[in-house]
Design brief:
By secondary structure, the protein is α/β, with parallel strands linked by helices. The protein has one domain: Ribonuclease Z/Hydroxyacylglutathione hydrolase-like (Metallo-beta-lactamase, Chain A, 4-Layer Sandwich). The chain has six helices and 14 strands. The strands form three sheets. A six-stranded mixed sheet has the order 1-2-3-4-5-6, covered by helices on one side. A six-stranded mixed sheet has the order 7-8-9-10-13-14. A two-stranded antiparallel ribbon has the order 11-12. The radius of gyration is 16 Å and the shape is globular. The mean pLDDT is 96.
Length: 212
């Protein structure tokens, strides 16, 4: 199983291609121009991958800019949590404020449910409901490989913003403590921005949410 990260756009958003046995899913495609789309497509072509699924951890504009490209290129199901649908619809209204002049909206094909298991190749990913940064934020956890894709909930020595529409600080901290910090310390965390970290390090050193 491979987790490959691209960093796209002016907000330096992390886009993930996760693949196993030539099957792949794309999480949070932030590619916002033709050059970035080409990089994403070239990787998938070079690895001879069959893209099976498009997922968003949440629907802030920097994480959804490439949804249209992925959907059109690979014709795969697009899935989000139901409580993120309003954020997805809102993205079109403010995309230009971030310099995203060519954002194209698509609609989800179905909704993710907490506890649902997503299979790609032989790898299995549990959907964790972790609101606070946004109302319907989810993370994806692979128990066997000790890997978590956290989106904008937990970062290396930081956390996601809670001051955006639909955000709530107390809810965010509760999601981290109840859903993420209950995972094993050696779980590697692939974040929505910045570098990777692990659960044990953040439990001990994160100034915003470390356990006392």
């Amino acid at each position: 199983m491979t987790v490959y990260c691209f960093t796209f756009g002016p907000l330096l958003e992390n886009t993930y291609v996760i693949h196993d046995d030539k099957e792949a899913m794309i999480i949070d495609p932030g590619c916002c121009n033709a050059e970035e789309e080409k990089k994403l497509g070239a990787y998938i072509f070079r690895k001879d991958l069959q893209v099976k699924l498009l997922l968003n951890t949440h629907c802030h504009v920097d994480h959804v800019m490439g949804n249209y490209f992925v959907k059109q290129r690979y014709n795969v199901p697009f899935r989000i949590h139901a409580q993120e649908e309003s954020a997805l619809l809102a993205a079109k209204a403010y995309a230009f404020n971030y310099g995203f002049d060519h954002y194209q909206q698509i609609s989800p094909d179905s909704f993710l449910e907490e506890g649902e298991v997503i299979t790609v190749g032989k790898s299995q990913w549990e959907v964790l409901f972790v609101p606070g940064h946004s109302p319907g934020h989810v993370a994806f956890y692979n128990e066997k490989e000790r890997v978590l894709v956290s989106g904008d909930v937990l970062f290396q020595r930081s956390i996601g913003r809670a001051d955006l529409p639909g955000g709530d600080f107390d809810t965010l901290i509760d999601s981290i403590h109840q859903k993420l910090f209950t995972l094993p310390d050696d779980v590697k965390v692939y974040t929505g921005h910045g570098g990777t970290t692990d659960i044990g390090t953040e439990k001990k050193t994160n100034l915003y949410c470390a356990l006392k």
